[in-house]
Amino acid sequence: MAKRVGIEVSLAISEAVKLANVDAIAAYPITPQTHIVEHLSELVADGELDAAFIPVESEHSAMSVCAGTSAAGARTYTATSSQGLALMNEILFIIPALRLPVVMTIANRALSGPISIWNDHSDIMSVRDTGWIAIFAENGQEAFDLTLMSFKIAEDHRVLLPISVNLDGFTLSHVIEPHEFLDQAEVDKFLPEYKPVVQLNPDAPVSMGTVGIPEIFSEAKKCQDEVLKGSEAVIKEVFAEFGEMFGRDYKVVETYRAEGAETLLMTMGSVSETAMEAIDQMCDKDNRKVGLIRLRLWRPFPAEALRAAMGGIKTLAVIDRAVSFGGTAGPVAGEVRSALYSTDQAPYVASFIAGLGGRDITIDDFIAVVDQAEKMAAEKEIHQYKMIGVRE
Amino acid sequence: MENLNVYAAKLAPQQESLAPGHRACQGCAELLAARLVAKTLGKDYIIANATGCLEIVTSSYPHTAWEVPWIHVAFENAAAVASGVEAGIKILKKKGKYPVDRKITIVAQAGDGGTVDIGLQALSGALERGHDMIYICYDNEAYMNTGIQRSSATPYGATTTTSPAGKASPLGQHTMKKNVVEIAAAHNIPYVATASPSYPFDLMQKVRKAADMPGPAYIHCFVPCPTGWRMAPNLAVSIGRIAVESKVFPLYEIENGEYKMTVTHKHHRPVIDYLKPQGRFRHLSEGNIAEIQQQVDKSYDRLLKKVKMSQIELD
């Protein structure tokens, strides 16, 4: 069974990709994703992973090569961050339209400018509407597990969509954590070989990526949307199967001490662990009725699970790690408000933007956010979003 | 396919994998060239197609003119997509997971815009990485699909919709055509060639050679566009021949670094024979034409020197 290994999270992800026995990896160096593909290239060079490692000349070509390998029928993986993701942008839209189950790790990093190599979520938020499934990991174990599960989700014939596994750059990608690794035999049992529905094969020729005339374009988009929305059921199924086999349970929306809470903090990614500390302090020391909710699944947006988790809360304080400049809320808070707006007893949704470009969000910050949110809710303050932790 | 030096149409392969019924303009030499490529490669090849005329006119869903596997992703990345298909099939074959055992040729095809401008980086990357594939640039010397805008393959003196001849700028395009054949050759790949559907057997032989040779090959194919060149559709083939006879577009190949002319003429036509039938050169003065004649002579001589150098090296 599982062995516990202390290893850098990036390397643990590479090991998961190896255990998934991928066929092709196309990658271009960008901080802070580099350790993942460096380790993969070592595994290929050492003969431990039988895969094509294609060191391309840009991220645009990385994603284009992934289109080619995946269309050929190969299990395909890549990783990127920030500007790299932005450079891929054009092709990101086309991959799900071609129904190619590419798996990509995004070590989340701020988008320029000013140029920053440090962590926030502006990169993934900028590709929200590309049609990819997007999942967030909170710690190394989750990053490892979700990477393995991603191949199974993406390649399921009811899905056949690309998927991004997001983890915070540096603050998660570069830390050393204990991971429970899985044996190859266990993984093979969980994750069968990829069987493409169609592939580029002269014995059964197909044309992929044909012109979408107005008469069929809307229909194509509707199909794509239905499949993405439908993938949530498959994601839950795969989470359940993984939990049964390996004992680690995953949900699309996770809660912490939410039972009986009047205020919930909402987070995504690795700050959730700091947030839990803050919740413990507020509950245990100050006897406050505060809990945490975190989104693991970002796309498709788990609206139903979110609504179910609201219980009878009065205030929801959403932490965004990206700015939707001039918008009505942070990107996550905006979604949340929209999902809850027409429900009975929707809580007051306060939108906070914090932790941009590597700025830490401390326990005290979370406590201050809860204080502020509760005050705003009591006063029914009309606001769009507030940026916190800004030196003025 | 053997002995195609003999000019006899009946020796051409009967097989077709590019079906009729596509939507190209009358007299489109790009489609003519693509059909010759298809005839040469038969059924065992896979195409990664860039956005452009060729893609648009052959793949309007629910129709497709392609009877071979074909993928279109975007404009600038045909080389990258083809390299992925090549790498993907290679590793799947190695792992015993690809359904076909035979050799399959991978072809990237794009227009001049998709090659010499926006696709140049992806092309360079794929050539440098050494994928076993053929890249074919169908060069009609402008962005024809979007309405005849200039590219860096548009020749000196041609008018296009974004390099128009006007009072202040009477020449039209005032830059020299980018020589991507030489850029491809600078990657030290095994095979680089120019080709023209006006010389079908030369073209087919080059495609065959490129397919048989391991590693990357680059074929720069000259495809007259009657619509964009402002000339009658029935002139497409003959203007392609005149381009070669007037030294404007010489047919040669670079095999493992050695240059060789594949079509030669004892006597060359003046460039005016090439320029005259085309509306895109209508505005040129006698002085302009004399200048173009000089440019053509000079670059042809430079090419001949490389050919001679190669002969000396081979001897």
Characterization of the model:
The complex is a heterodimer of chains A (392) and B (315). Chain A is of the alpha/beta class and 392 residues long. Chain A folds into 2 domains: 244 residues, Thiamin diphosphate (ThDP)-binding fold, Pyr/PP domains (Rossmann fold, 3-Layer(aba) Sandwich); 134 residues, Rossmann fold, CATH 3.40.50. Helix content of chain A is 41%, strand content 19%. Chain A is globular. With 315 residues, chain B is α/β, with parallel strands linked by helices. In chain B, 38% of the residues lie in helices and 13% in strands. Chain B is globular, with a radius of gyration of 19 Å. The mean pLDDT of chain B is 95. Chains A and B meet through strand 3, helix 3, helix 4 and strand 9 of A and strand 1, strand 2, helix 3 and helix 5 of B. Strand 9 of chain A pairs parallel with strand 2 of chain B.
Write the layout of secondary structure elements.
The complex is a heterodimer of chains A (392) and B (315).
Chain A: E1 3-8, H1 9-19, E2 24-27, H2 34-45, E3 52-55, H3 59-72, E4 76-80, H4 82-97, E5 103-108, H5 122-126, E6 133-136, H6 140-155, E7 163-168, E8 176-181, H7 184-190, E9 207-208, H8 214-246, E10 253-256, E11 263-267, H9 271-285, E12 290-295, E13 297-299, H10 303-309, E14 315-320, H11 331-340, E15 348-353, H12 363-378, E16 386-387
Helix pairs in contact in A: 1-2, 1-6, 3-4, 9-12
Chain B: H1 29-41, E1 45-49, H2 53-58, E2 70-72, H3 78-94, E3 105-111, H4 112-117, H5 120-129, E4 134-139, H6 180-185, E5 191-195, H7 200-212, E6 217-222, H8 226-229, H9 236-245, E7 252-255, E8 258-261, H10 271-275, H11 286-314
Parallel strand pairs in B: 1-2, 1-3, 3-4, 4-6, 5-6
Antiparallel strand pairs in B: 5-7, 7-8
Number of helices of chain B: 11
State the separation between the terminal residues of chain B, measured CA to CA: 29 Å
Helix and strand composition category of chain B: alpha/beta
- Proper CATH architecture of chain B: 3-Layer(aba) Sandwich
CATH domain class of chain B: Alpha Beta
What is the terminal-to-terminal distance of chain A? 53 Å
Radius of gyration of chain B from CA coordinates = 19 Å
Mean pLDDT of chain A: 97
Low-pLDDT regions of chain A: none
> What kind of assembly state do the chains in view correspond to?
heterodimer
User: Secondary-structure element sequence of chain A?
Assistant: EHEHEHEHEHEHEEHEHEEHEEHEHEHE
SSE series of chain B: HEHEHEHHEHEHEHHEEHH
Low-confidence stretches of chain B: none
Fraction of helical residues of chain A: 40-55%
Tally of discrete structural domains of chain A: 2
Strand content of chain B: 5-15%
